[in-house]
Amino acid sequence: STRPNADAIIRPDFKFEDMGIGGLDKEFTSIFRRAFASRIFPPGLIEKLGIQHVKGLLLYGPPGTGKTLIARKIGTMLNAKEPKIVNGPEILSKYVGSSEENIRNLFKDAETEYKAKGDASSLHIIIFDELDSIFKQRGSRGDGTGVADNVVNQLLSKMDGVDQLNNILVIGMTNRRDLIDEALLRPGRFEVQVEIHLPDEPGRKQIFEIKTKKMRENGSLGRDVNIAELAAMSKNFSGAEIEGLIKSASSFALNQHIKVGTVGDIAGDLANMVVSRSDFIHALEEVKPAFGVHEEDLQ
Ligand code: ATP
């Protein structure tokens, strides 16, 4: 049957602002429209249009930009099962000799549930992190034993076989889309591909706001800290690096308190600890973005 998955509808209580994702509204909308809209179509529309649900989504872009975050939130939004997350190299090295079986096992729960419940089964999400590490172009992957090729073939045969199953979505993630085997990008496989960029200035501002929310609520963010200024000063930072910057600023603030206090004073002192602008400036001298510096410098 091609009736939309009964459980895979947007949770009525779902709010985009609550997702804790900064600066990826456009990407999220694009992912939703291209990969998930069909899951909330009214009954019969899928058949009428003669289309199938997307079963593979590729998210690509620099490290630490929120690819995993977005994949998980999509699952929450669609009321999916807790995603299974597999790391590319893990499949190959940890379970030598049984790599193909590992791939088959990833699909097993979804298959079993589909057999039992049909379209009433919930959506099962399988996430492949570092997809490029095993799914590079043929000939250039693996250790020459052919294990990697077998794993690719196993995954492709699984994905090609899920036509009858409405309840599986495979999300691949990579920093190197250019390395991915073209065979994986065909229709029916990772057919929807969305780039997740480094955040721009408004995006960074949103991320700073999300990541300092608790501090602002409990008064530990200094009044002299201006988030718009931090966003302007953190060009080329990924979301993960912004998180690192805030941690670094906090530890500068902490260290200062510890230096001035005696052991007995510290506890009381820390209760009033405030992370101030100078801690952020200090942190900005230490924490540098790893990616994209060259591109933006050339502009
Ligand atoms: P990788 O390619 O290294 O696997 P990724 O793109 O999957 O990275 P995540 O694991 O999603 O990155 O992000 C790492 C952490 O950085 C997240 O746990 C999150 O706290 C923070 N982060 C990254 N991007 C964002 C964002 N756009 N909004 C909010 N938080 C973010």
What structural category characterises the helix and strand content? alpha/beta
Q: How much β-strand is present in the residues? A: 5-15%
The helical percent reads 40-55%
Provide a count of the helices. Answer: 14
Q: Report mean pLDDT, rounded to a whole number.
A: 82
Low-confidence stretches: 1-9, 294-299
Write the H/E string, N to C: HHEHEHHEHHEEHHHHHHH
Report the bound ligands by name, code or SMILES: adenosine-5'-triphosphate
Summarize the biggest pleated sheet.
5 strands, parallel
Give a count of the beta strands, DSSP E runs of length 2 or more: 5
Notes on the structure:
Strands 2-3-4-1-5 form a five-stranded parallel β-sheet, with helices on both faces. The termini are far apart. It is built from 14 helices and five strands. It is an alpha/beta fold and 299 residues long. It is 47% helix and 9% strand. The relative contact order is 0.14. Bound molecules: adenosine-5'-triphosphate (ATP).
Write the layout of secondary structure elements.
Blueprint: H1 25-36, H2 45-49, E1 56-60, H3 67-77, E2 84-87, H4 88-93, H5 99-117, E3 124-129, H6 131-134, H7 147-161, E4 168-174, E5 192-195, H8 201-211, H9 213-217, H10 227-233, H11 239-260, H12 263-271, H13 277-286, H14 293-298
Parallel strand pairs: 1-4, 1-5, 2-3, 3-4
Helix pairs in contact: 5-7, 8-10, 8-11, 11-13
Bound molecules: adenosine-5'-triphosphate (ATP).
Briefly say what this structure is.
This protein has 299 residues and is of the alpha/beta class. It has helices spanning 25-36, 45-49, 67-77, 88-93, 99-117, 131-134, 147-161, 201-211, 213-217, 227-233, 239-260, 263-271, 277-286, 293-298; strands at 56-60, 84-87, 124-129, 168-174, 192-195.
